[in-house]
Design goal:
Strand order of the largest sheet: 1-5-4-3-7
Radius of gyration: 16 Å
Largest sheet: 5 strands, mixed
Number of strands: 7
Number of domains: 1
Helix content: 25-40%
Order of helices and strands: HEHEEEEEHHEHH
């Protein structure tokens, strides 16, 4: 498959042009590795369900970025191999040691001086300050992202959060 296929601006963002992977586990690993290209911010994601495209059944995931933006990505888990290409606007946080999930260097986010200045000026969204990697679930939270954040908090996966209510209130600002 040509690299041009993956450079299409609707790759992964359109049910007819889903991200091609071999399994649910590959999908969860893919989503847990994603960061926003412009600033390296992380995502929490949950599966909305499956839909039928003209070619196959496609899984739909909703992503909530720690900066407050939401988007949906589409995945086909019936590929003969994992095609590890991020959709437009995304990169991967780092290389991966998972078998069959090798990330090309060009798709790995590299922090910049701007990121460090934003952190120093405390411009980073509150959720980003407490989450150190993107999180993905293969089930649906009906009050997303709040219920997923509560779940992560209860599991001890949000670091140094003293006031969960303050964190949840910050999502609406």
């Amino acid at each position: 498959m040509s690299n041009d296929f993956f450079r299409n601006s609707d790759y992964g963002k359109n049910i007819e042009n889903p991200i091609l992977l071999k399994s649910i586990n590959a999908t969860l690993h893919f989503l847990s590795s994603l960061v926003k290209k412009e600033n390296g911010y992380h995502f929490i994601t949950h599966r909305l369900g499956s839909q039928v495209s003209t070619k196959s059944v496609v899984d739909v995931y909703e992503l909530y970025c720690t900066d407050g933006t939401k988007e949906q990505l589409y995945f086909s888990i019936y590929s003969d191999k994992n095609y590890i290409y991020p959709p437009e606007g995304y990169l991967f946080e780092s290389g991966s040691d998972a078998p069959g999930f090798e990330i090309a260097e060009e798709f790995i986010y590299k922090s910049t001086e701007v990121d460090l200045k934003d952190n120093a000026k405390n411009k980073v969204p509150l959720l980003e300050q407490f989450i150190f990697s993107s999180k993905a679930n293969n089930f649906r939270f009906f009050n997303f992202p709040e219920e997923m954040i509560k779940d992560l908090y209860n599991k001890g996966e949000l670091f140094l959060v003293n006031d969960l209510n303050e964190l949840l209130e910050s999502l609406n600002k």
